[in-house]
Design brief:
Length: 325
Protein backbone atom coordinates (compact mmCIF):
# COMPACT_ATOMS: atom_id res chain seq x y z
CA UNK A 1 0.00 0.00 0.00
CA UNK A 2 1.11 3.56 -0.64
CA UNK A 3 -0.18 6.54 1.32
CA UNK A 4 0.31 10.18 0.37
CA UNK A 5 -0.17 12.94 2.94
CA UNK A 6 -0.12 16.72 2.49
CA UNK A 7 1.44 18.38 5.53
CA UNK A 8 2.34 21.63 7.22
CA UNK A 9 4.65 21.67 10.23
CA UNK A 10 3.73 20.56 13.74
CA UNK A 11 0.22 19.19 13.12
CA UNK A 12 1.27 17.42 9.94
CA UNK A 13 4.50 16.03 11.39
CA UNK A 14 2.89 14.69 14.55
CA UNK A 15 0.14 13.03 12.53
CA UNK A 16 2.56 11.36 10.12
CA UNK A 17 4.70 10.15 13.05
CA UNK A 18 1.57 8.54 14.52
CA UNK A 19 0.62 7.11 11.13
CA UNK A 20 4.06 5.54 10.77
CA UNK A 21 3.75 4.10 14.28
CA UNK A 22 0.40 2.56 13.40
CA UNK A 23 1.78 1.03 10.19
CA UNK A 24 4.90 -0.29 11.91
CA UNK A 25 2.95 -1.95 14.71
CA UNK A 26 0.23 -3.51 12.56
CA UNK A 27 1.03 -6.90 11.01
CA UNK A 28 0.69 -6.69 7.25
CA UNK A 29 1.01 -2.91 7.10
CA UNK A 30 4.73 -2.58 7.87
CA UNK A 31 5.67 -2.41 4.19
CA UNK A 32 3.35 0.51 3.50
CA UNK A 33 5.23 3.47 2.02
CA UNK A 34 4.30 7.05 2.85
CA UNK A 35 4.99 10.13 0.75
CA UNK A 36 4.68 13.42 2.59
CA UNK A 37 4.19 16.55 0.49
CA UNK A 38 5.32 19.51 2.59
CA UNK A 39 4.20 23.13 2.51
CA UNK A 40 7.03 25.46 1.53
CA UNK A 41 5.04 28.71 1.68
CA UNK A 42 6.52 29.35 5.14
CA UNK A 43 10.05 29.42 3.72
CA UNK A 44 12.15 32.46 4.44
CA UNK A 45 15.72 33.67 3.92
CA UNK A 46 17.32 34.81 7.17
CA UNK A 47 20.95 35.88 7.55
CA UNK A 48 21.53 34.60 4.04
CA UNK A 49 20.25 31.13 4.97
CA UNK A 50 17.26 29.42 3.41
CA UNK A 51 14.95 28.24 6.19
CA UNK A 52 12.07 25.83 5.46
CA UNK A 53 10.16 25.68 8.75
CA UNK A 54 7.59 23.03 7.80
CA UNK A 55 10.09 20.76 6.04
CA UNK A 56 12.41 21.05 9.04
CA UNK A 57 9.66 20.26 11.54
CA UNK A 58 8.83 17.15 9.48
CA UNK A 59 12.50 16.11 9.32
CA UNK A 60 13.10 16.55 13.03
CA UNK A 61 9.81 14.99 14.14
CA UNK A 62 9.99 11.98 11.84
CA UNK A 63 13.73 11.61 12.44
CA UNK A 64 13.40 11.61 16.24
CA UNK A 65 15.26 14.88 16.80
CA UNK A 66 12.44 17.28 17.51
CA UNK A 67 11.99 19.33 20.68
CA UNK A 68 8.83 17.54 21.70
CA UNK A 69 7.41 20.08 24.13
CA UNK A 70 7.75 22.84 21.55
CA UNK A 71 6.74 20.73 18.57
CA UNK A 72 9.40 22.31 16.31
CA UNK A 73 13.18 22.87 16.44
CA UNK A 74 15.77 20.50 17.83
CA UNK A 75 15.84 18.76 21.20
CA UNK A 76 18.84 19.70 23.39
CA UNK A 77 19.23 22.93 21.48
CA UNK A 78 21.41 25.95 22.37
CA UNK A 79 21.27 29.50 20.99
CA UNK A 80 24.85 30.74 21.03
CA UNK A 81 24.93 31.81 17.38
CA UNK A 82 21.73 33.79 17.80
CA UNK A 83 23.25 35.51 20.86
CA UNK A 84 26.22 36.62 18.75
CA UNK A 85 23.96 37.86 15.97
CA UNK A 86 22.03 39.90 18.52
CA UNK A 87 25.29 41.33 19.86
CA UNK A 88 26.06 42.52 16.34
CA UNK A 89 22.58 44.00 16.10
CA UNK A 90 21.77 41.85 13.07
CA UNK A 91 18.05 41.76 12.24
CA UNK A 92 15.64 40.12 12.58
CA UNK A 93 15.80 38.89 16.14
CA UNK A 94 12.22 37.67 16.43
CA UNK A 95 12.80 34.33 14.69
CA UNK A 96 14.35 31.71 17.00
CA UNK A 97 17.22 29.84 15.36
CA UNK A 98 19.02 27.27 17.46
CA UNK A 99 22.61 26.27 16.84
CA UNK A 100 21.83 22.71 15.70
CA UNK A 101 18.97 24.01 13.58
CA UNK A 102 21.29 26.52 11.92
CA UNK A 103 23.43 23.63 10.66
CA UNK A 104 20.40 22.40 8.68
CA UNK A 105 19.98 25.82 7.10
CA UNK A 106 23.69 26.12 6.33
CA UNK A 107 23.69 22.71 4.65
CA UNK A 108 20.54 23.53 2.68
CA UNK A 109 21.83 26.94 1.60
CA UNK A 110 25.20 25.54 0.55
CA UNK A 111 23.60 22.79 -1.56
CA UNK A 112 21.09 25.19 -3.10
CA UNK A 113 23.98 27.53 -3.88
CA UNK A 114 25.77 24.69 -5.64
CA UNK A 115 22.75 24.23 -7.89
CA UNK A 116 20.80 21.45 -6.21
CA UNK A 117 17.01 21.74 -6.24
CA UNK A 118 15.03 21.98 -3.01
CA UNK A 119 13.81 18.41 -3.66
CA UNK A 120 17.38 17.14 -3.97
CA UNK A 121 18.40 19.04 -0.86
CA UNK A 122 15.41 17.67 1.07
CA UNK A 123 16.30 14.12 0.00
CA UNK A 124 19.81 14.60 1.38
CA UNK A 125 18.51 16.02 4.65
CA UNK A 126 15.96 13.19 4.93
CA UNK A 127 18.72 10.61 4.50
CA UNK A 128 20.55 12.04 7.50
CA UNK A 129 17.34 11.72 9.54
CA UNK A 130 16.73 8.11 8.51
CA UNK A 131 13.46 8.69 6.68
CA UNK A 132 14.07 6.23 3.80
CA UNK A 133 14.64 3.41 6.31
CA UNK A 134 11.21 4.20 7.72
CA UNK A 135 9.69 4.01 4.22
CA UNK A 136 9.01 7.74 4.39
CA UNK A 137 9.55 9.98 1.39
CA UNK A 138 9.53 13.73 2.01
CA UNK A 139 8.85 16.03 -0.94
CA UNK A 140 8.64 19.82 -0.89
CA UNK A 141 5.44 20.84 -2.69
CA UNK A 142 7.53 22.76 -5.24
CA UNK A 143 11.15 23.52 -6.06
CA UNK A 144 10.18 27.06 -7.04
CA UNK A 145 10.86 29.51 -4.19
CA UNK A 146 7.46 30.67 -2.94
CA UNK A 147 6.63 32.77 0.10
CA UNK A 148 3.32 33.39 1.82
CA UNK A 149 2.74 37.06 2.61
CA UNK A 150 0.02 38.54 4.76
CA UNK A 151 -1.66 41.77 3.75
CA UNK A 152 -2.33 43.92 6.84
CA UNK A 153 -3.37 47.52 7.52
CA UNK A 154 -0.45 49.94 7.36
CA UNK A 155 -2.02 52.17 10.02
CA UNK A 156 -2.43 55.05 7.52
CA UNK A 157 -5.54 53.86 5.75
CA UNK A 158 -3.63 51.71 3.30
CA UNK A 159 -2.20 48.24 3.41
CA UNK A 160 1.16 46.50 3.34
CA UNK A 161 2.31 42.93 2.90
CA UNK A 162 4.57 41.28 5.45
CA UNK A 163 6.17 37.84 5.33
CA UNK A 164 4.00 35.14 6.86
CA UNK A 165 6.64 34.42 9.51
CA UNK A 166 6.68 38.05 10.62
CA UNK A 167 2.90 37.96 11.02
CA UNK A 168 2.85 34.56 12.71
CA UNK A 169 5.97 34.63 14.89
CA UNK A 170 6.62 38.31 15.55
CA UNK A 171 3.00 39.48 15.78
CA UNK A 172 1.46 36.16 16.90
CA UNK A 173 -1.22 36.63 14.21
CA UNK A 174 -2.60 39.56 16.20
CA UNK A 175 -2.58 42.02 13.27
CA UNK A 176 -5.88 41.55 11.42
CA UNK A 177 -5.05 39.87 8.11
CA UNK A 178 -6.87 41.19 5.05
CA UNK A 179 -5.70 38.36 2.82
CA UNK A 180 -2.84 36.01 2.05
CA UNK A 181 -0.75 36.40 -1.08
CA UNK A 182 1.68 33.68 -2.04
CA UNK A 183 4.51 35.21 -4.04
CA UNK A 184 5.54 32.93 -6.89
CA UNK A 185 2.82 30.31 -6.40
CA UNK A 186 0.93 30.80 -9.66
CA UNK A 187 4.14 30.25 -11.63
CA UNK A 188 5.39 27.42 -9.44
CA UNK A 189 5.55 23.85 -10.70
CA UNK A 190 4.80 20.91 -8.44
CA UNK A 191 8.08 19.28 -7.38
CA UNK A 192 9.05 16.03 -9.12
CA UNK A 193 6.92 13.19 -7.81
CA UNK A 194 4.25 15.31 -6.13
CA UNK A 195 1.42 14.92 -8.64
CA UNK A 196 2.29 11.26 -9.21
CA UNK A 197 2.22 10.66 -5.45
CA UNK A 198 -1.35 11.94 -5.34
CA UNK A 199 -2.48 10.14 -8.50
CA UNK A 200 -0.87 6.80 -7.72
CA UNK A 201 -1.63 6.61 -3.99
CA UNK A 202 -3.92 3.98 -2.54
CA UNK A 203 -4.99 6.46 0.13
CA UNK A 204 -4.53 10.23 0.35
CA UNK A 205 -4.63 11.75 3.84
CA UNK A 206 -4.95 15.37 4.93
CA UNK A 207 -3.47 15.53 8.43
CA UNK A 208 -4.84 18.13 10.87
CA UNK A 209 -2.65 20.86 9.38
CA UNK A 210 -3.61 24.50 9.09
CA UNK A 211 -6.27 24.57 6.33
CA UNK A 212 -5.28 28.03 5.06
CA UNK A 213 -1.53 28.52 5.36
CA UNK A 214 -0.39 24.87 5.20
CA UNK A 215 -2.84 22.67 3.24
CA UNK A 216 -4.35 25.70 1.47
CA UNK A 217 -0.96 26.70 0.10
CA UNK A 218 -0.17 23.17 -1.15
CA UNK A 219 -3.57 23.13 -2.89
CA UNK A 220 -2.55 26.32 -4.70
CA UNK A 221 0.41 24.65 -6.44
CA UNK A 222 -0.68 24.29 -10.06
CA UNK A 223 -1.92 20.75 -10.69
CA UNK A 224 -2.27 19.59 -7.10
CA UNK A 225 -5.98 20.27 -6.74
CA UNK A 226 -6.71 18.63 -10.09
CA UNK A 227 -4.65 15.61 -9.08
CA UNK A 228 -6.72 15.32 -5.88
CA UNK A 229 -9.97 15.59 -7.83
CA UNK A 230 -8.78 13.03 -10.33
CA UNK A 231 -7.14 10.43 -8.10
CA UNK A 232 -8.85 7.09 -7.77
CA UNK A 233 -7.66 6.90 -4.15
CA UNK A 234 -10.01 7.82 -1.33
CA UNK A 235 -9.08 11.20 0.19
CA UNK A 236 -9.64 11.44 3.94
CA UNK A 237 -9.02 14.52 6.08
CA UNK A 238 -8.58 15.04 9.82
CA UNK A 239 -9.92 18.23 11.37
CA UNK A 240 -7.37 20.61 12.92
CA UNK A 241 -10.11 22.15 15.07
CA UNK A 242 -11.48 20.71 18.29
CA UNK A 243 -14.59 22.40 19.70
CA UNK A 244 -14.23 24.90 16.86
CA UNK A 245 -10.81 26.02 18.06
CA UNK A 246 -7.31 25.26 16.79
CA UNK A 247 -5.47 22.96 19.17
CA UNK A 248 -2.41 25.18 18.77
CA UNK A 249 -1.52 28.14 16.59
CA UNK A 250 -3.80 30.64 14.94
CA UNK A 251 -5.82 28.74 12.34
CA UNK A 252 -8.89 30.69 13.51
CA UNK A 253 -7.24 33.99 12.54
CA UNK A 254 -6.26 32.51 9.17
CA UNK A 255 -9.80 31.28 8.52
CA UNK A 256 -11.24 34.66 9.50
CA UNK A 257 -8.96 36.34 6.96
CA UNK A 258 -10.44 34.25 4.15
CA UNK A 259 -13.99 34.67 5.44
CA UNK A 260 -14.50 31.09 6.57
CA UNK A 261 -15.99 30.32 10.02
CA UNK A 262 -13.76 28.39 12.42
CA UNK A 263 -15.82 25.20 12.40
CA UNK A 264 -14.89 21.67 11.39
CA UNK A 265 -17.69 21.75 8.82
CA UNK A 266 -16.52 24.96 7.21
CA UNK A 267 -12.97 23.60 6.95
CA UNK A 268 -14.33 20.50 5.17
CA UNK A 269 -16.02 22.94 2.78
CA UNK A 270 -12.56 24.11 1.65
CA UNK A 271 -11.87 20.54 0.45
CA UNK A 272 -15.38 19.66 -0.72
CA UNK A 273 -14.44 19.19 -4.37
CA UNK A 274 -12.08 16.28 -3.69
CA UNK A 275 -12.64 15.03 -0.13
CA UNK A 276 -14.34 11.67 0.48
CA UNK A 277 -14.20 11.34 4.27
CA UNK A 278 -13.81 13.92 7.04
CA UNK A 279 -12.86 12.95 10.58
CA UNK A 280 -13.91 15.37 13.31
CA UNK A 281 -13.63 15.29 17.07
CA UNK A 282 -16.75 14.15 18.99
CA UNK A 283 -16.98 17.72 20.32
CA UNK A 284 -17.68 18.90 16.76
CA UNK A 285 -19.76 15.95 15.56
CA UNK A 286 -23.19 17.43 16.30
CA UNK A 287 -22.43 20.64 14.40
CA UNK A 288 -20.64 19.07 11.41
CA UNK A 289 -23.13 18.08 8.76
CA UNK A 290 -22.41 16.00 5.69
CA UNK A 291 -21.31 18.35 2.89
CA UNK A 292 -22.11 17.20 -0.60
CA UNK A 293 -20.37 13.89 -1.07
CA UNK A 294 -18.11 14.27 1.98
CA UNK A 295 -19.02 11.71 4.63
CA UNK A 296 -18.37 12.80 8.23
CA UNK A 297 -17.02 10.52 10.97
CA UNK A 298 -16.03 11.28 14.54
CA UNK A 299 -13.41 10.10 16.98
CA UNK A 300 -11.07 11.70 19.53
CA UNK A 301 -8.60 13.94 17.71
CA UNK A 302 -6.20 15.12 20.39
CA UNK A 303 -2.69 14.00 19.38
CA UNK A 304 -1.58 13.81 23.02
CA UNK A 305 1.14 11.22 22.40
CA UNK A 306 2.31 8.88 19.65
CA UNK A 307 -0.04 5.96 20.48
CA UNK A 308 -3.07 8.29 20.66
CA UNK A 309 -2.04 9.79 17.31
CA UNK A 310 -1.58 6.30 15.85
CA UNK A 311 -5.21 5.55 16.75
CA UNK A 312 -6.34 8.68 14.89
CA UNK A 313 -4.35 7.58 11.83
CA UNK A 314 -5.80 4.08 12.10
CA UNK A 315 -9.30 5.58 12.19
CA UNK A 316 -8.53 7.69 9.11
CA UNK A 317 -7.35 4.57 7.23
CA UNK A 318 -10.49 2.67 8.29
CA UNK A 319 -12.57 5.50 6.87
CA UNK A 320 -10.51 5.39 3.66
CA UNK A 321 -11.36 1.73 3.21
CA UNK A 322 -15.08 2.36 3.82
CA UNK A 323 -15.88 5.44 1.73
CA UNK A 324 -16.50 5.29 -2.01
CA UNK A 325 -13.48 7.03 -3.58
P1 LIG B 1 2.41 24.40 11.54
O1 LIG B 1 2.88 24.57 10.13
O2 LIG B 1 3.50 24.13 12.50
O3 LIG B 1 1.45 25.45 11.98
O4 LIG B 1 1.63 23.01 11.53
P2 LIG B 1 0.42 22.45 10.69
O5 LIG B 1 -0.13 23.42 9.72
O6 LIG B 1 0.84 21.11 10.16
O7 LIG B 1 -0.62 22.16 11.82
C1 LIG B 1 -1.21 23.20 12.55
C2 LIG B 1 -2.58 22.76 12.96
O8 LIG B 1 -2.48 21.56 13.72
C3 LIG B 1 -3.28 23.76 13.84
O9 LIG B 1 -4.38 24.30 13.15
C4 LIG B 1 -3.72 22.94 15.05
O10 LIG B 1 -5.05 23.20 15.44
C5 LIG B 1 -3.58 21.51 14.57
N1 LIG B 1 -3.26 20.62 15.67
C6 LIG B 1 -2.21 20.69 16.50
N2 LIG B 1 -2.29 19.71 17.44
C7 LIG B 1 -3.43 19.02 17.18
C8 LIG B 1 -4.07 17.91 17.79
O11 LIG B 1 -3.61 17.34 18.78
N3 LIG B 1 -5.24 17.48 17.23
C9 LIG B 1 -5.79 18.09 16.13
N4 LIG B 1 -6.93 17.59 15.64
N5 LIG B 1 -5.21 19.15 15.53
C10 LIG B 1 -4.06 19.60 16.05
CA1 LIG C 1 3.93 26.10 8.93
Amino acid sequence: MHITALAGGVGGARFVRGLRHHLDTTPGLEDTTVTVVANTGDDITLFGLRVCPDVDTLLYTLGGGVHDGQGWGRADESHRVQGELAAYGVQPQWFALGDLDIATHVARSQWLGQGATLSEVTTRLAARWGLPEQRLELLPMTDTPVETHVVVDDGEGGERAIHFQEWWVRHQASLPARRFVVAGLDRAAAAPGVLEAVRRADVVLLPPSNPVVSIGIILGVPGVRDALRGTSAPVVGVSPLISGRPVRGHADACLEAIGVPATAGAVAGLYEDFLDGWLVDPADAATTLRRGRVEVFDGPLLMSDVPATARIAEHALRIASSVPA
